[in-house]
Amino acid sequence: MKIGIIETGKPSETLAAEFGSYPDMFASLIGKSMPYARFFTKSVVSGETLGSPDAADGWLITGSRHGAYDDVIWIEPLEIFIHQCFGDKIPLVGVCFGHQIIAQAMGGKVHKSNKGWGVGPQKYSVSNKPDWMQDLTSEYCSHAIHQDQIQQLPASATVFSSSDFCNYAAMLYGDTDFPDALTVQSHPEISADFLQQISKERLSKIVPADVLAAGLARIGTPVNDAEWGKIFAQYFQRMTKARAEKMSAS
To answer: Please, where are the H alpha helices in the chain?
Structure first.
């Protein structure tokens, strides 16, 4: 199975040297549950074009320091690509910025939240999850770094996770048994060490000091990252099998 990772943001050279790129982090997270998968990167933030969705069995859109509403040259082509994935039933995962850009592409609205920044381990509740998502418990904890939030849902989205801070923390699109996309606001790919380092390097310059301090004080809270790795793998496997069966029957 080939999974294309759409790189929409990059850590600094210092962070990348220690932790790898964001695509590296996702390949590690998902690869633990799908060791036979092959991962490759399309870096739209570096100017690469996406080409055809058929180049992969599934796609994942990473986080980014950009907003979905920013006037950057690769946003519109990415939204077109998202529509193509939906139309061709090629599974699509979105994380943080990926969560937001998929919502925007499908008719939702994204902007900075009046709740401000969410940083550090965050607790989320789960409801309306499909039966195949057995590895996700009724509550989970995951690292977050975001100020933007989805403010208006796309018509095809079903929310299955939320918190007091983030109403739309995870969503499925279309048929929840065989979703067109699976998206999550938090960052299951990043470690506590990465969060501490990016806080020193970048977040301390843009996040209010009290908010950042409160978030960092929660570091060490157990997070459910491994479960999300399994869920992403299950989703790609489930949808790839369903698509192959449909194509062979037609």
So the answer is: 13-19, 22-31, 75-88, 97-105, 192-198, 204-206, 209-217, 225-249
